[in-house]
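Let's practice the habit of predicting before peeking. Look at the sequence and jot down your guess about where helices and strands might fall. Then scroll down.
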Amino acid sequence: MSLTLYYHPLSSYCHKVLIALYEHAVDFDKRIIDLGNAAEKAELQALWPIGKFPVIHDHTGQCDVAESTIIIEYLDHYFAGQNRLIPGNWDTALEVRLWDRVCDNYLQTPLQQIVLDRILGANGNLTQQRSTLQTVYGMLDRQLANNSWLASAEFSLADCSAAPALFYASTLERMPDEHVHLNAYFERLMNRPSVQRVIDEARPYFSLYPFEQDIPQRFYPRP
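Done guessing? Here is the structure:
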């Protein structure tokens, strides 16, 4: 394998990269990193001193690539299949990058703050974070009024970002029923084979998620 992904199966940012890898049908090795293990954390920091995953090591070019959006840009340039995740048209690509940032900054960030508060038992005032999630739900619903995918005619980087962000955010703040476009989009995302595969791989680790009880039963296999 020319690529090794350093990641954790429960991490939403790792989900984002995994979706891109599966969309491109890229062969790669997986290295699960437990940040609570000092040796494994040091192994990750040797690649990326910030110590956050995901990180990809390209054995061919002896290159380490960090940060989920940059990793997907890298994959799209060197390992893309027929369907690029970043469109060739500049204006469309700009729209894709915009919505990628919206999902990362205004879904992922507040949801992670809410999750961290639960892990730490801080019981902080999270009104602003929850309000931000609802604001973005409204923005997404309007954006999707005339689009099947978030930022282009085809599945893109923006959708790689949206899928894990919405999966986790929806366990914290329910998507309002009146956001019919957003709810329909969420169903399309969850039925995407690449997304289904990521969720299947994350399922054995759901018990580590502080809001596991709020993950809908539909995401668990039937007996």
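How did you do? Residues 90-193 form a domain with the Glutathione S-transferase Yfyf (Class Pi); Chain A, domain 2 fold (CATH 1.20.1050.10).
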